[in-house]
Amino acid sequence: MTYILSIITFLFFIIFLAGLGKKILSYFIKDFHSSAEEFAFSYAVGFGIFGYSILFLGILGGLFPLSVILVVTTAVFLSWNEIKIIVTNIYFFTRAFGKKLPRYLSKTLFLNLIICIAGISIIACFLGSMAPSYSNDSMVYHLTDAKYFAETGKIGLIANNSTNALWPYLIEMYFTIAILLKLLPLAGLFHFSMALATLCGIYGFSKRFFREECARLSSCIFFLTPLVIIESGQTYVDLGVSLYGSLGIFSFIIWFQNKDIKWAFIAGIMSGLAMSVKYFAMIIPLIIGIYIFTGIFFAKKNTRIKIFKSFLIFITGTFLFSAVWYLRQYLIFKNPFFPFFVDIFGSSGLDTETLKQFSEKGIRDAMGAGAGLKDLILLPWRITMFPYKFGGEELGPLFLSILPAVLFLKKIEKNVKIISGIIFVYICLWFSQYQHLRFIIPIVPLLCVIAGYLLDKIINEDTASQCGINGKLIKISNDAGIEPRQDGNPNLASSIVTRTSRKKFFSNTIIKFLICAEFIYLCLFCVRHNWSAIKTVIGIETIDEYLSNNERSFEIAKYINKNFSKHDKILVIDEGHTFFIDIPNKREEYYWLYTGYNKKYQTAKDIISYFKKEGFTHILYTVSPDIGSLSELFNKNRLAILMKGSEFKEKYFKFIFEITPTSKNSNGVKYFLYAFI
């Protein structure tokens, strides 16, 4: 029943947010090229605006189900006409779908097969997104911080338990809504919706500038990319960066074509919303801003002022739709990018070296495969063949097999050159900063556009072009004095044409076969990747079984929730996965970071007394050869270190429970529960 309610609520939000965005955009843009393009931009804007309303509710301490319903009701009232239009269009579309189905399909069997393969992948990702998430970042902060916001009704700094709570958290606002409504599958669906909107954006952009077949190929390729498949099944936020980053770039290219200042503003809005999802997304407005600004110097005198105005309006849009996240970081920590860049902005009184570890310095240094020129040249091969060196996610073989075809094209359209330039600049910046494959996802839609364009060029050359070639051959034969034979048999020119046509037919058939085989493989990858989650959603496997098999902290959390009361308070040592623990808890590593208790108290007795005064009644202690946050860094006078001594534990604690999880991500971990004596 939870899944059905989540789907119904999700469909409501899709229509509601698209209507809200359509209402807002009606004041700026009226020249959308297609319904898909309009939906992508409308949903993106509506999602962003409503996400901000949730943020401001939380900042004011009024984030409760009733207040959220009130905001939704108000927004529905203001955008009622647009919502009615969307609902009406959906009604007539579904009513006439069967009759007009041939119109929606391609004229070629190959493309229809690709559409069906991609459709299976989309359905698998949709079902898989509803299963409970167990990704590391979700367990540490995406869902864990959202749970805190929902429980307290406040959005802000989480005392002594997170360094991330003030980050750009636009997607987490929707995770908070899902938890607030007690519909956890809705969190995964919200993230999945980012991929759906991106697909529409790819289709709309490709249809605007290229052929219909190119648009279909490009959008299908997106949902057959392993990185997208993996992301859509977890409550990450990267698909949000993919949506806003790609729409920002698409808006910029539309502006580049027509120099309409409104599209520069839309590009700024999309860039600002991308920065509202993730710090790393600031690369997008940086690239677009440089493109626009340098255009001032290469433009004609009569257009320079207009381009300069576009640059200013772009910067304004970016600032307006991102500043709040960075401003509150600055007001609290004097660092708009906390806990990053502490050497520049300072550490707000916290230990600098410790903060560097919390900002993934160790992970960053271990990621990637070198930073030299040779490494940059070999990057496409290494990303495809050795994804474990770049964080474990996969980009898949598709782009490596298709994109080199660009070298054999005699004529490349201007927009393809612009997109290729943006991809190259982004890759270089990504390569020099943080070689985690997940952070490459903002340009995946651009890669899909180029891949679709190339496939369309290679496979679907139109008949007129072929006739032109044949005509040239016949003209050459006549100029050479070769006359057609009167007995009706083909002359030399027609023989050449026939051999050329046969050669082209067989080569195209082989290419289509190989592409279909590759797409089928990627579709099977998608189904296999999501199969365990799908079994849970359709009821073959229970949620408890699913989480026990996949999330190491679930079983110990289940025990704690059953045997502890809300009056207890648990200090969690060397484990960041605390989302499923419903009893009040704090993580020791954050307590250590914010309070510096190990410097204030020098004896074990004083440290124990301190935590008792803080209200802690129990300790969840984790032992693992691979997991353990920062236990042995900088100062050994920490509870995390003291717990390693058996005499210390016997003196100050009472042993309660022990469990060794068998989940896929357990990595040899063991959990021990102790009570303070």
Automatic annotation (TrEMBL):
Main location, first listed in the record: membrane
Localization: Cell membrane; Endoplasmic reticulum membrane
GO BP annotations, alphabetical order: lipopolysaccharide biosynthetic process; protein O-linked glycosylation
Chain ranges of the ArnT-like N-terminal domain: 205-332
Single GO MF descriptor: mannosyltransferase activity
InterPro entries per record: ArnT-like_N, GPI_mannosylTrfase, LipidA_mod_glycosyltrf_83
GO cellular component, one term: plasma membrane
Transmembrane segments: 6-28, 40-60, 66-87, 108-131, 173-202, 236-256, 277-299, 305-327, 416-433, 439-455, 509-531
Keywords linked to the UniProt accession: Cell membrane, Endoplasmic reticulum, Glycosyltransferase, Membrane, Transferase, Transmembrane, Transmembrane helix
Domain of life per record: Bacteria
Membrane-topology annotation of the record: Multi-pass membrane protein
Protein name (record): Dolichyl-phosphate-mannose-protein mannosyltransferase protein
Organism: Candidatus Omnitrophus magneticus
